[in-house]
Amino acid sequence: xxxxxxxxxxxxxxxxxxxxxxxxxxxxxxxxxxxxxxxxxxxxxxxxxxxxxxxxxxxxxxxxxxxxxxxxxxxxxxxxxxxxxxxxxxxxxxxxxxxxxxxxxxxxxxxxxxxxxxxxxxxxxxxxxxxxxxxxxxxxxxxxxxx
Length: 147
Hints:
Region (Disordered): 1-147
Distance between the termini: 209 Å
Strand content: under 5%
Low-confidence stretches: none
Order of helices and strands: H
Helix content: over 70%
Mean pLDDT: 96
Largest sheet: none
């Protein structure tokens, strides 16, 4: 019985030896997988940092965009006010133009009257000239009578 037990022990030893070698190989594979995992972890960490930086940049760009939006809104309000003022100035200018037009018409009428008065004055001047000549002639006649 001892011989059989010894052979069984020998076989179990060999099986144990094989299982040990397999375990050793599996350990090496596990070690390599661990190293790969470690590298993937480092890459993931770096990608995380890059993502964080991109997030900050995006946030800052968002703030800038919001400020630009506020400026644009204020510029729009100013533009609206300037437009309203321009509209009012245009209306005033229109009214002044109408007044100027009316004054021009009055001036034109006064010019016509002045022209007519000038013609009358010219005619009166002609009459006066003729009367002067008559007076001159009468004066000469009177001079001759004195002699």
